[in-house]
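Teaching soon. Got one?

===
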Amino acid sequence: MPKRILQGTVVSEKNDKTVVVSVERRFRHPVLKKTIRSSKKYHAHDAANAAKEGEIVRIRECAPISKLKRWELVTDSAE
């Protein structure tokens, strides 16, 4: 089964080997017919501590690494 890949902005990189990524999605409200922006934060594993705050990164679903981490950072060379 393919793993989901999301794109978002790094919000925090204070933890060791962990980044917090804010992923925004846009959808149309079913009644009001307005476009709504909704965001969610994901904790992602960053083994090399390479990502910096404000960068746009891609994260991939993976097996649970810790209590909150179920995503890992996708590096361009790994694709």
Observations:
- Residues 52 and 70 are 20 Å apart (CA to CA).
- The domain at 5-78 is CATH 2.40.50.140 (OB fold (Dihydrolipoamide Acetyltransferase, E2P)).
